[in-house]
Structures are given as structure tokens and as C-alpha cells.
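May I ask for a sample protein chain and its fold as C-alpha cells?
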Amino acid sequence: MRIVLCLIVLVLALVAVGCGGDDGDSGSATSTADWAEGYCAAITDWANELKQATDQLRDFKSLSRESFQQAGEDIDSATETFTAELRALGAPDIESGEEARRAVETFATAAEADLVTIEAAVENVSGVAGISKAVVSITEGLTSMNKAFMTMVKSLQRIDPKEELQSALEDAESCDDLAG
């Protein structure tokens, strides 16, 4: 039950701060509008995939080691895709674009480290009784991931004094999915 609640809290936190600004890869700058569309689309996809993973855990009567492991694999896959999509965005075409790219890279690296905790917890489950112990480790990993995400969002807000990213995020159609 706690993992379901933690994942829901993480998804809600992502939706609540989703239109806060972010970026991803090095190299040539990505137009701010394209970057915002990609950013919000990545968050929307990740939130939806995490919700699907937690839905697998809602029916406690049919919860098994296999369904628990599948949910863990789904969380892992969704997060790996999310971090790859954020990195692929590159730096937004703003004055502080490289700083934004570094903020995203820091988040992606932290999220991948947190996945190691989650993967270990899922792999070490032995029977349904072991699930409760695994929930503690998974919760710690998700909490750490959420903190890293919030730090990234705050960094992006701090480096966007002209509110170029914020404006692009407000204009991006894919961000509309986060608001409603």
C-alpha cells in the first residue's frame, strides 16, 4: 500500500511542478518552444507509466511476487526512458541553456542511482511477505528521486530570470496535459 501511495505522491508532485522548466543534452541548443514541448511530453508519459505501474499494485488480493516485480520493471523502464528523453532535449536556446542542461543531467544521474535501490528491492523479494520489506527501500528510492526532481525544477526556475522557459512551458500544448 505504501508503494502505491509513494508513487502516486511522486506522480502528483511531477504534475504539480511539471511546468517549472527543464532541459537535457549538450550540443546545439534546442528552440525553447520545442524544448518545452518535449519536456512536458516526457513528464506526461512518465507520470502515465508510473500510474500504470502502481495500478498493478492496487489489488492486494491478487498481488504476487511476479506482479510486484513487473511493477518494479515498469518503474525502471519508465524512468530510464524519461531520463533519456530529458537528456535528448539538449540545452534550451536561452542565455542559461547550458546551466539548464546541467540541472537536467544532475537529476537524470540521481534518478538512475535511485533506480539501483528500487531494482535491488524488487530483486530481493522472496514471497508476498518480503514485499513489505521491499516497500521501505522502494519508498526511499522514490523519495530521493522526488527530491532530485524538485531540486532540478528549482534550479531551472532560478536560472530563468527572464522567464523564457516558463513562458514556453505555458504555451506548449503538451503542458496542457499536465494541468488537467
Remarks:
- The chain has one domain: 2-179.
